[in-house]
Structures are given as structure tokens and as C-alpha cells.
Amino acid sequence: MHDHETRRNERDEENDMAGTAAVTAAAAVGTLKGRAGAWWRSRREAARRDTGMSTAEYAVGTIAAAAFAAVLYKVVTSGTVSGALNSMIGKALDASF
């Protein structure tokens, strides 16, 4: 009878340890989910506060886009790039099918 009680006590202790490990793991996952949820909440709040660009931001963006277009136009119309594009288009049109 004593052996039977000892085995039952050992089994109960093992179950308690397994239960404690499961609770600890669940708490860690819950904490991780809580942190992720807090991060997403803060991102949503920031997005609500920043609803769009101001006039100054539009002006800077427009100037940057115009400057990029000017540089791109100069590069594409330069002799080297223009010759390469003409050569490539000529080869594509002269290709035999």
C-alpha cells in the first residue's frame, strides 16, 4: 500500500510540474501577444495623428520630383544613352522571327 501511495504522490508531483511549465509557457506567449498588441495600438494611434502631408511637405516633394525628372531627362537624352537606346530598339526591330 505504501508503494501505491508513493507512486501516486510522484505522479501528482509530475503533473504539477507539467502544469506549472504549461502555465509559464502560456504566460510568456500572453506577454508576447500583449507587447505586440501594444505596439500595433501605438502604430494605429500614430497613423491617426498623422493624417497627411502639409503644404511644405508637398512643396518639397514636388521640387524633388522635378529635380529627379530633369536629371533623368539629361541622362536619357545624352549621346551615350541615346545611342544605346537607338541601337537596342534597332536590334529589336530587325530581329528575325
Note down, in words, how this protein is organized:
It is a single chain. This protein is an all-alpha fold and 97 residues long. Helices cover 89% and strands 0% of the residues. It is built from 3 helices and no strands. The protein has helices at residues 2-49, 55-76, 79-94. The longest helix has 48 residues, at 2-49. The termini are far apart. The model has no long low-confidence stretch (mean pLDDT 76).
Number of distinct beta strands: 0
Q: What is the count of helical runs?
A: 3
Structural class: mainly alpha
Mean pLDDT: 76
How much β-strand is present in the residues?
Answer: under 5%
Shape: elongated
List the secondary-structure elements in sequence, H or E: HHH
Q: Radius of gyration, Cα only, in angstroms? A: 35 Å
Q: Gap between N and C termini, in Å?
A: 94 Å
Largest sheet: none
Instruction: Note poorly predicted spans.
Output: none
Note the quaternary state here. single chain
Helix content: over 70%
List key phrases describing it.
3 helices, 97 residues, 0% strand, single chain, mainly alpha, 89% helix
Task: Give a quick precis of the structure.
The protein is mainly alpha-helical and 97 residues long.
Produce the secondary structure layout.
Elements: H1 2-49, H2 55-76, H3 79-94
